[in-house]
Amino acid sequence: MPDKEPNARGDTFSLRLPLLNCYILGATFPPLAAGFLSKTTFYRVKIFSGTANEPLARAICKSIGMELGKCTIKPFPDGETFVKIEENVRGEEVFLVQPTSPPTNHNLMELFIMIDALRRASAKRITAVLPFYGYARQDRKDQPRVPITAKLVANLLVAAGANRILAMDLHAQQIQGFFDIPVDHLYAAPVMYDYLKTKKLGDLVVVSPDTGGLKMAHAYSQMLGAGLAIVAKRRKNATDVESMAVIGDIKGKNILIVDDLTETAGTLTEAACLLKKKGAKRILACVSHAILGETGIERLRKSSIDELITTDTVQRPPIDGVKITTLSVAGLLGEAIKRINSNSSVNSLFEFKGGRTS
């Protein structure tokens, strides 16, 4: 058993952890769930949320037995954003939950303003929790005279005062290198796997809808013990693609298309159409971030996809005519927050079944 010692105020205690040979000051919260840490001690930590996905932030807090921090966020008549942190954060470790999903520019600016408010309120360390990282697809110069906006956003986050980034399923893993501060990159795959194993899909083939998603598709195929195939595509413009060929055996098989992001659903629906023509049976799509504008919703309604499995990294209104299963990543993000706060490794959050989910 750990050694307990009262502190000066008498309202908390310090734990001596025999394996780490150190003391951590804080309060003990109940375990998150079976398979996670059995006991976690927080050191002066608070969690705040912007307006982009407050339900996810509340779910994260609930999973680790905390209250969401109080703050006021409201617009001025001219459209500017006003932020006030309504509680003391001096010397605290702060986690700020704000996916930069549409309206992307508004949510980004709100995030910068909140980070600045926390920094000026003397927060000890500010971690920007970005379940979805906007502008991630603009990560290179693929044409003359275009910006690398993913790098610009990284620079702005650091300039605003972020000390650490916690992200999930970045569009390109090299985006981590755009930051000069620590980045913890999580994957939704463990949450997806827990759901997929309940469906007991036989004769399963995992399909990458393009060559860029091959690494993710391979990780899913390893997790599920399934086959692997690739759809070759050609992008016509920002919203339209053309699927041209399938590499791999998919005839008479159940299909799981995996991707990190869909907005207009062009890549998913074109791939599903081609796979159906090639003899695929049931087609499921597994997407970490489903933004889904009107174009994407309409395409999914007319597509060969039987079920779209996604997460709650971004908020979506209810959608009729499409079978969408939304899984929560709140427990995964909550566990990462606990481990970051206690300076523990987050590596095991995406290592299981003897392999990696990345």
- How big a fraction of the residues is strand? 25-35%
- The radius of gyration computed from the alpha-carbon positions, rounded to a whole number of angstroms, is 22 Å
Q: What is the CATH class designation of the largest domain?
A: Alpha Beta
Architecture per CATH nomenclature, i.e. the level-2 architecture of the largest domain: 3-Layer(aba) Sandwich
The stretches of 5 or more residues where confidence is low (pLDDT under 50) are: 1-39
Measured between the Cα atoms of the first and last residue, the distance is 36 Å
Question: Could you say which structural class the secondary elements and strand pairing correspond to?
Answer: alpha/beta
- Strand order, main sheet: write it out: 14-13-12-15-16-17-18
Shape: globular
Mean pLDDT: 86
Largest sheet: 7 strands, mixed
Number of domains: 2
